[in-house]
Each structure stands twice: as structure tokens, then as C-alpha cells.
């Protein structure tokens, strides 16, 4: 799969293989309340107590997130006396990878477990869990299509779904990745890598969170970052390649990733505003309802 | 899962009146809407809800309720199994994790964390999968025509169904999604170059594809066709049998409803899944248990011996199957209408949403 | 601060900053939290996290030329928040459920520590009452109870001299993992119900044993919130004649935010049955139930539970009550409780006529339509949708087709 040469990533006119400039993120669209609005409604017998959902697509990567809760833990042993339990599951659909289909089991697939864990870490930094003691908030992420960066898309989707559910957050958590190549003698730092670029950067078919090892050479970096852009703090950064450039090199890439997160945040904020305004108008009885399709 | 007897009673009474709680008659389906990738006529740039990384896809969506089912079809060329060397393969898998685990046997959701719940979820999924495998898959396509080069290359269609939400009749929805997904699938025209004996010999000798010259793939998307025989892919109609004791004489009235909502499903005394193809031929019958109401109903309405149970008389099963066949005809008509409508639209507008699948999961009602 | 009024804010957005010297800052309302304004320059460790924070200010500023209204956050974006700070006492957060009492002192205590700022924790519009600043989410998915709310709930458990009531009306699940799909459930203590007979007396152990004869698992009931506990658990009661078991009708559920608090939650929708409706084929069976007398007004009762459960049943015809009084002539001074009990009994045991069924289904679908367009569910809006659908001649089953949803809810939007 790594027949791709690194020079292919950035052509001479400084465009990436999919036509973006180095500092451009992929086309991103957010859709809050993708599943029937704040469900468990519509039927007398709710099939699940979902309270918020969001669909996020970043380029061809597409992720659906559903938030349930806060609800009862069910088992006493999982109950925390002072805050809510946060349960995060990440799944992939068999058809998500672009090539052959691949069935993954979220409870045994190592990469999914790892990414679920990263997602949980990132989210628990933001959710005000202590407001709901003895209860449970569960976040279920379904990767519908994976063209690289599924962890970043999942974090963004989870944030939006939590906001859709009205669960108090300390700040919005936005995620974006950045990478660096030594292309043609000069360093190029790019933002929001797609699958091909991740493969080139890590030397393996990275599913998003970055697979360790492989042929990751010392001058390439793939760095997914989750931030709270309004505070300018980092909640998650993961880098698995050996850096020849030292700490400064890391800082440069991180800076680019932070810029990417800022862009992501603006898109997310716009989506939330749009949805909020729509709902608010609907509440006042002034909204337009348009029949699409 | 239990709803209160009085709710169940109201639902059954409503069905007896042929005026169900949402206004439908007994044999009417809800207005399912189908989103697929437009097939043959238009190109893939046209916007409809679809998964663009798949060869074919569909979304079954119920605007007034909470059913939402995605289906993806991926096609690839594989070596056939030795005992069926000249037949293609259709594989199916169902994921219902986001729906909280659909409990087919009782019609509702369990859910919750823990390994036991996860195992339960997997069991339920496999139950749905195996039912579809038996009811739909054998008749889904013309398997023989999926063979490119018998014994060497056949198409394998992998159907993956994701149930995001389901408000009753999960099998019906899955079968619908599968059928529409298969119909929207485009298989490129592939022809095998038969170099006399040589090609066959090399095919037997080593794994297919070692010599790259024996397949010619037509690159033109307009030449691509849906899998042969997909129009005959059957749909499943689940008939819920609601039974209520009538009068003091111990008589029981049975009434059949199709496309039951979850609450209707919950008070069914038994359910029968019938797969019916386009010509009205019954392709398979499976009886499922009821919604778990019967025990309580017996308590409420005079104890045991009223004959409300999951078993049913033989002659009734015949009626039920007939009912299903009748209802299936209407369902086919409805889906065709839907298809015509959306195809017409696709020809007209080819505009916004260049991202390919921004429309996925969008509700038809946009609020602003 | 004033400029933020009625603004739409996002989580993490700073609403107000106050300094300990300037007394009279703000009070924390719903959907916000308070934290200390971090000192501008923290000691810079070589910790990569701090590094990240430092560089982030660069990235944030450079990346966004068109920064619109992030509040004050941009000014302070070079702040490094560390988890020690967040977990510590300097960060006190809003308890969305039970507030009111603690707020003042919390703020006062915090004022002593240093400058602090108020930050939104949910996406919504800012509301300000004097010093109290709160953020109201446009569609809170979680129902938070208040004393006096009407609840339409379902019994999911009996035991410990109390009933467990699911607020999402979700049924008791058959599996081992119980109640996992139910959002916070309510508790209906035995002392919160009227025992049969209507007399007030001490609850005995026999009553505890006979709890299932009153409400069993799966039963639906209306009740009222009597008390909200510290952890958000609702204590319910049915100690009014209006509350109790729901029978012979239909339940539908909507997001709780669509049911606003109003004076009366037991409403009657009038004129839901089209005039030309004729009951052509009436099924006359020998039945355990009496067939309705046909003396129906065409009205439908709707119980709007604030938890999102909505119960629809036919209006009990006034004749019934009169006839009840007539038959009970000898002791016409029978207590109201008994009369209601009898009426309820009769309602439960009398079959609903076909036309009433249509009315109920129409109201049910009208509520579904309103839910789908996120419209507030009020008796007026239901009535508008029902009337429009009748006028347009939309059949009940067609009401949930998207094109009709748009059409028949149009009037509710142009008020």
C-alpha cells in the first residue's frame, strides 16, 4: 500500500493529492440531531433513551455519534458517588474502510479499544460529570465511512452530540490532525490528513489514531490533536514517530494542528448556532419548515 | 417488555375496528421513504442519501416515526466455494448496536452496558441475520448470473445493514433496505478472457488474479448494471396476530396487522414473517413469538384457558400468509411509487450538496 | 454583560468576569459555571502541555481572521487551565437540578478568592434576571423536574413500599439489565397515593403487600412531583382525584422541552371528529364491554405530562356523570372521590366508539406532527393542526406524510 512516494503528497505547486492547500482542512459538515430529534419519542415504547446525536463528516470520513443519558447506571458497582460514569464505545461499520470490508468487534479490536479510550479521556476533560452523580452518560460512536482521521471526527461528533443533548460542558472539544513531511528538501506541514496522507506519514494503514511503528521515518509526523479552542488548551495529542527535529518540530506541527482545530471549531459553532436558532424559532412558532427532497 | 394491559386492549380493539392507533387500516404499511444512490440513468454526482464508499447503498427511513436503517452493498470478485463453483455469493450482516439492541423475540429493546448485555446484543443481531439469510438471501439475486468465470471468479455481494433506529418490524425494514441497496448497486461489466484451457488451468492452479490479464473490466459507469435478478428480491412482511377474548364464551378473535409499531408488536400474541417476491410468490415463512403480552392478558381477562398463546391453528397460518401476500403487493406498489418519485427528482435537480453524502440521515423536514 | 442578553452562546464562552474588589458581580444560573480567572502568566514549565497552551494562543489568533463574538475568551486565550485547578475548590459548578438556595453563598465564598468568570456550559440563549445569569438551551433533552409538575409515567418496579416510575414511559425491560434505558426515574412512595376507599389512614403492612393491586409494572399513571431530592430524584404523589391510573387510551411521547409549563395540563381538544364521519360498519360483538352509547361530543382529552409523556383518551361524556347521579339518587351526596372512581371505571370498561377512535388517532398524529416540526405542544397548537387537517380533508393515516406535515402545521408557525 505504500507505493505512494512521499513527494506525491505535495506537488510542486503546493497542492496536496486531493487538491487542498497545506493549511486547508477537508470539507466538513455537521448535522446535529441526525437521528430523530432528542428521541425516545414518537413511540410509546422508546427503543433507546437517546438524548442527542450528531453526524459529522470531514472529507470522506463520516461519523455518527449518539449520546444517551444521564440515566441510571443499572449496576451499583459501576456507580460513582460523586460524578457520572462516562461510557464510550466506538464501533465501525463493516463498510467503513474504502477498500475491502472489514468486520471489527469493538470489544476485542485493539485499535478501537484504544481510540474509545482516547475519546473518553478527551471528553471527560470537558463534561461536567460531577453534576450527575450516580448516573451514567454513554457515548456511542459509529464510524460510517473512514477515510482517515476517524478519531478526530469522532471527538467532534461526540462534542456536538453532547451539546445537542444539552449536557453541560466546560468547553467545546475540537479535534484536528496535522502532519509533516520532508518533501523535496523542505519541510511541509499539512493539516487534517486524509487516509493516504496518514499512510504516508505513518507508513501503515493508520485507522485514524495512528498505528505505531511501521515504517514511520524520523522526519514524518502524524499528530492528531484535540483542543479546547476557547481556552487554548490541549486535551489530547498523540504522536508516535521519532522526531528528528526535536521539540521545536513538535511545537510547529502542534501549532498547525491548533489552527486546524480553530477552523473546525468555527464550523462546529456555526452548525450549533444554526440548529439552536432553528429550534428557538420553532419554539416561538416562527420557524420555516421546508420539505427537502 | 410489557405495556399495560389496558393499552394493549385499546390497541387490539382499534385493530378490530380496522382503525389502528395511527389511523392506518390493518393491512397498510407506514409511508416508508427510500433513499438510494440513483441507479443507471444518472451519475453518482446526483445527491441522494448514500454511502459513497460502497457499490450500492440505501436508507430506509420513516418520516413520521423513528425507523432509520442504512444498508451498504460492497461487491468484489472472489473464488467460488468448491461445491458451488458457478454461483455468486451474497453475504449479510446486521448491526443494531445504536438501536440499543433490538430484541426480536420480544419486540423491544434491552440495552445497557456490561458483557452480558453485549453478548445478548450479538445474539439478537445474529438472529436477525440468520432470519434474513433464510427468508431473503436465497432469492435475492440470480446466483448463476453472478459468476464471471465459473470456478474461478464470481461476484460476492456483501450486504451490511445498520439499524440506527427501529420502531417495530425490524425484519421488514432490513429486507427493504437490502432490496433497495441491491437495486442501487452497480456492478461494472467484467468479462473473463478465456484462453482456452490455459486460463482454466492457471485458475485452478493458483489463487485468482495472479495473472492479471484474464479479466477485462469495463470502465464506463454507464455500462454498469445492477446485479441480475435483483428485481425478484423478496420483501419481508411481518404479520402481527393480535388476539382478544371476545365475550364470556371463551371465544377468541384474532386479527392480523402488518407493519406493526413497537407497541402493537408488544401486544401481538404471535408474529409471522413472510417473505414475498414481486410476483406475489411466497418465498419463506417464519413464525416468531409474540410480544409477551399474553400472560398478562390472561390474568386480566379471566385466567387461563382462553387460548391466547403463541401457538396458532393451522388454518390460521394459511390466512396469515395470504394476508401477508396481499399486503406485500401494496408495499411493492408503494416502494415503486417512491422510487419513481425520487428518480424523477434526481433527474431534475443536480445541485447543492457536492460533498456526496451530506444528505445522509437528513430529515426530510428542514427547520429554520 | 448586557450585550449578551438573548445572545446565543456556546459552551466555554465567557459570559461575565468580576473582580473581588468590585462587589456585585453576577449570580450563577442554570447552564453556567464559575471558575477563577487564571493569572495571566503561569510559571512556564517545560511540560509539553503547557507548551501547547502557550502556542495555542498563536494558532488560535492566526487561524481566525473573522473571529465573531467569542465573548472575552479571545482576550484570555493564552490561559493555561490545568486539571488541578479544575478539580479544586476554586471551581464550583452549577447543579442543574436543585439550585436556588446555595447560589448566593457560593458566589460570596468565591468572591473572596479572587477574580472569577462565569462561563456557559450549554449551548443556548443567555437570560438575565438582575444578577442571575443563566443559559437556556433551546431543546434540553433531559427533563429536570420541578415541584408541581404533571408527570405521565409508567410503573417499572414495585417494592420497598414504593413504586418506581419511569419518566420516559419506557416499559420495564424483560432482560436482566433493568431500567438502563430510562432516564432518571421517579419514586412514588406508598404514602403518596390515595388508598382505595379514599380514607386517610396509616399505611399498614397489608397495604405494602397489596401494592400491586393498585399499580402494577407496566401500568401508566398520571402523578405530580411532590419533591425533588438533592440528586435529582423525583418524589411523586397521586394524592389528588385527578391523578391515577390511565386506561383505555393512547400514549405518545415527545421531547420534554416541547411541553411547556402551563396552568392546566389536563386539556380537552374540541371538535376533533369530522362531521361527515359515519360509522358505517360497526362491529357488534358479544363483548365483555358495553358498546358506547354513541352520545359523544367529539372531544378528546389530552394529558400533557411535563416529562414528555402525553396521554390521549376520549372525554368522559357529561351524561355519564348525570346518569351516575341519577342512579345514586338515594345517596346523592356520595363523595366526589367515589363518583370519579365510578366514572373512571366506566370509562375503562366502555368500548371506545369508532368515531372517538378516529378522533384520538387524529390528535395523536397531530401531536406527532408538532413534534416533528419542533413546535410547542399546547392545546391551541394541537387544535390548529387538527382543524387544519380536517379542513384540508387529510385522512388520519396521511397526516404523518412529510408533505402533509408541512401543510397542516403551517398555521401553527404563522402565529
TrEMBL record, chain A:
Residues annotated as coiled-coil are none
- Exoribonuclease phosphorolytic domain location, by residue? 24-168
* Cited Pfam families: RNase_PH (PF01138)
What family is this protein classified in? Belongs to the RNase PH family.
Q: What is the protein name for this chain?
A: Exoribonuclease phosphorolytic domain-containing protein
| Organism field | Cyclotella cryptica
Automatic annotation (TrEMBL), chain B:
Q: Which domain of life is it from?
A: Eukaryota
Keywords noted in UniProt: Cytoplasm, Exosome
Domain Exoribonuclease phosphorolytic, first and last residues per copy: 54-180, 251-293
Q: What is its main location?
A: cytoplasm
Q: Which SUPFAM superfamilies match?
A: Ribonuclease PH domain 2-like, Ribosomal protein S5 domain 2-like
Q: Which InterPro entries match?
A: ExoRNase_PH_dom1, ExoRNase_PH_dom2, ExoRNase_PH_dom2_sf, Exosome_comp_Rrp42_subfam, PNPase/RNase_PH_dom_sf, Ribosomal_Su5_D2-typ_SF
UniProt entry tagged with the keyword Cytoplasm? yes
Q: Where in the cell is it found?
A: Cytoplasm; Nucleus, Nucleolus
One GO cellular component term of this record is: nucleolus
UniProt signal peptide: none
Family assignment? Belongs to the RNase PH family.
Q: What is this protein called?
A: Ribosomal RNA-processing protein 42
UniProtKB/TrEMBL annotation, chain C:
Polar residues bias (residue ranges):
71-80
InterPro entries listed in its UniProt record: Exosome_RNA_bind1/RRP40/RRP4 (IPR026699), KH_dom_type_1_sf (IPR036612), NA-bd_OB-fold (IPR012340), S1_RRP4 (IPR048565)
Q: Name one Pfam family in it.
A: S1_RRP4
GO terms of molecular function: RNA binding
Which SUPFAM superfamilies does this one have?
Answer: Eukaryotic type KH-domain (KH-domain type I) (SSF54791), Nucleic acid-binding proteins (SSF50249)
Highest rank taxon of the organism: Eukaryota
| Region spans: Disordered | 37-104, 169-196
Q: Where is the composition biased (Low complexity)?
A: 169-182
Q: Which organism is it from?
A: Cyclotella cryptica
**Key words of the record:** Exosome, RNA-binding
- Can you quote a single GO CC term? exosome (RNase complex)
According to UniProt, the name of this protein is: RRP4 S1 domain-containing protein
Give all residue intervals belonging to the RRP4 S1 domain. 143-227
